[in-house]
């Protein structure tokens, strides 16, 4: 499987709740970092983050770019509530497994700020 296919399998498994398929592409020495999480190990990721799959209906891939051992994925996700959001993640893939994920939270879709404008609180 190519790094892009491995990355996509991970997202599709997350959205469908297929933990075994997700675990199959997550390395033993995995780490997960986001604005809320700092280098969670594999066990903590599955304890803390995996349950969030229940609130996700699916992902639409906006861009998937492979560069050396990394895959950069921007997606629009749809929550079971219907809320849409956009994030970008950088996945490091080694020996056919995702070893590291860095998540960069994006924005709501549609954007909370008016076109050409901004949010005053930000």
What does this structure look like?
The protein is an alpha+beta fold and about 120 residues long. It has a single domain, classed as Nuclear Transport Factor 2, Chain: A (Roll). It contains three helices and six strands; from the N terminus they run ααββαββββ. It has helices at about 5-15, 20-25, 40-50; strands spanning about 25-35, 40, 55-65, 70-80, 85-95, 95-110. Strands 2-1-6-5-4-3 form a six-stranded mixed β-sheet. β4 (about 70-80) and β5 (about 85-95) form a beta hairpin. The chain starts with a helix and ends in a 13-residue tail after the last strand. About 15% of the residues are buried.
Describe this structure in a few short sentences.
The protein is of the alpha+beta class and 122 residues long. Helix content is 22%, strand content 46%.
Sum up the structure in keywords.
single chain; 122 residues; alpha+beta; Nuclear Transport Factor 2, Chain: A; six-stranded mixed beta sheet; 3 helices; 6 strands
Q: What's the CATH C level?
A: Alpha Beta
Specify the CATH architecture.
Roll
The secondary-structure class comes to alpha+beta
Unreliable stretches covering 5 or more consecutive residues: none
Q: Determine Rg (CA atoms, Å).
A: 15 Å
SSE map:
Elements: H1 3-16, H2 19-24, E1 26-33, E2 40-41, H3 42-48, E3 56-67, E4 70-79, E5 84-94, E6 97-109
Parallel strand pairs: 1-6
Antiparallel strand pairs: 1-2, 3-4, 4-5, 5-6
């Amino acid at each position: 499987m190519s790094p892009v296919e491995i990355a996509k399998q991970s997202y599709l498994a997350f959205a469908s709740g297929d933990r075994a398929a997700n675990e199959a592409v997550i390395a033993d020495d995995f780490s997960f970092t986001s604005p809320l999480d700092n280098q969670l190990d594999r066990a903590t990721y599955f304890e803390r983050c995996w349950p969030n799959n229940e609130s996700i209906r699916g992902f639409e891939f906006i861009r998937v770019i492979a560069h050396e051992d990394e895959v950069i994925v921007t997606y629009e996700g749809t929550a079971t509530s219907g809320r849409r959001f956009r994030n970008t993640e950088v996945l490091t893939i080694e020996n056919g497994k995702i070893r590291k994920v860095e998540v960069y939270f994006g924005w709501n879709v549609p954007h909370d700020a008016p076109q050409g404008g901004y949010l005053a609180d930000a």
